[in-house]
């Protein structure tokens, strides 16, 4: 999702953010071109005027419940690739909403409303269940990353929901990664620490998403013991143009290495950015250069072809999701 504000909750299911799912060519991975999945059609009344609710901000809890019941939500998956081999190592699940009257609604618009109304809990539970079911049919080398709202993490029953999703899908916990933003650290730290500890005890990995966009203390990196740090794309833009940007990203990478975290750089759009991040030592790369978000069936096809290439010896195996440099 492009150019979204650096706000924690709005990043839940960030939309790389064009509601439609574009054709994708994964260079050096599978050579599969995905069909366009058109999610851009808006359902409107006569004369093209949207029917009620007329504005996104008018959405209520009942609208979210109706959307869940009516199957209006869907997930797209953006591949994450190994910086070393270019192989897919994971996919981030991204929420899409095709409203029958408003058309495609951006997560940046509806997630804050869902949090205010409490609807984010059932929506988040659906996302978790759907993502786990999808990942369960993928090869073992691919994990699925799911964004978690601070509201979800504060829910005492959230860990139980994660357990239920894993059991229902048959997905092993080590293949599920939960992405938290720095906004999680801005609230009740004791509650957040307890929630993260409960999740880690299940065997899932925890990533700090959008690192650098908030105002949290670096001390939280040690206290929370994240498995992965994701460098926000705002720091990647212009990486090859300003030396200060290079030093900043390198510093973030080195901090993560110091705490034993893997590093994923987001929002990669150019070969120069990818090259410089490889030189810095990033573990994984994610962005439009490699793939836009794709439908679950397309992600499955890409991963199946990669698995075939691995079996035939045409490609190097991707690093396991738990593999990352430790000082």
TrEMBL record:
<dbReference type="InterPro" id="IPR001633">
    <property type="entry name" value="EAL_dom"/>
</dbReference>
<feature type="region of interest" description="Disordered">
    <location>
        <begin position="1"/>
        <end position="25"/>
    </location>
</feature>
<protein>
    <submittedName>
        <fullName>EAL domain-containing protein</fullName>
    </submittedName>
</protein>
<dbReference type="GO" id="GO:0071111">
    <property type="term" value="F:cyclic-guanylate-specific phosphodiesterase activity"/>
</dbReference>
<feature type="compositionally biased region" description="Polar residues">
    <location>
        <begin position="1"/>
        <end position="10"/>
    </location>
</feature>
<dbReference type="InterPro" id="IPR050706">
    <property type="entry name" value="Cyclic-di-GMP_PDE-like"/>
</dbReference>
<dbReference type="Pfam" id="PF00563">
    <property type="entry name" value="EAL"/>
</dbReference>
<dbReference type="InterPro" id="IPR035919">
    <property type="entry name" value="EAL_sf"/>
</dbReference>
<feature type="domain" description="EAL">
    <location>
        <begin position="57"/>
        <end position="307"/>
    </location>
</feature>
């Amino acid at each position: 999702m492009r150019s979204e504000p650096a706000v924690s909750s709005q990043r839940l299911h960030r939309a790389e953010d064009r509601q439609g799912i574009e054709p994708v060519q994964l260079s050096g991975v599978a050579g599969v071109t995905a069909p366009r999945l058109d999610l851009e059609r808006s359902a409107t009344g006569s004369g093209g005027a949207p029917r009620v609710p007329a504005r996104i901000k008018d959405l209520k809890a009942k609208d979210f419940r109706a959307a869940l019941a009516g199957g209006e939500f869907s997930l797209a998956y953006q591949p994450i690739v190994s910086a070393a081999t270019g192989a897919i190592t994971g996919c981030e699940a991204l929420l899409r909403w095709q409203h029958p009257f408003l058309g495609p609604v951006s997560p940046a618009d509806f997630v804050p409303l869902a949090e205010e109304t409490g609807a984010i809990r059932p929506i988040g539970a659906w996302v978790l269940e759907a993502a786990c079911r999808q990942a369960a049919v993928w090869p073992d080398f691919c994990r699925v990353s799911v964004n978690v709202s601070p509201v979800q993490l504060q829910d005492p029953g959230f860990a139980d929901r994660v357990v239920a999703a894993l059991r229902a899908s048959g997905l092993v916990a080590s293949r599920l990664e939960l992405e938290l933003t720095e906004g999680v650290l801005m609230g009740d730290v004791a509650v957040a620490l307890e929630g993260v500890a409960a999740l880690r005890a299940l065997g899932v990995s925890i990533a700090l998403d959008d690192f650098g966009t908030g105002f949290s203390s670096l001390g939280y990196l040690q206290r929370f013991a994240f498995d992965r740090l994701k460098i926000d794309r705002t720091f990647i833009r212009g990486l090859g143009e300003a030396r200060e940007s290079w030093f900043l990203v390198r510093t973030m990478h080195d901090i993560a290495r110091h705490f034993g975290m893997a590093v994923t750089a987001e929002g990669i759009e150019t070969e120069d950015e990818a090259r410089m991040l490889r030189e810095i030592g990033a573990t994984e790369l994610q962005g439009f250069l490699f793939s836009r978000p794709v439908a679950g069936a397309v992600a499955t096809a890409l991963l199946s072809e990669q698995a075939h290439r691995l079996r035939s010896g045409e490609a190097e195996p991707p690093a396991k999701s738990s593999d990352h440099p430790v000082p």
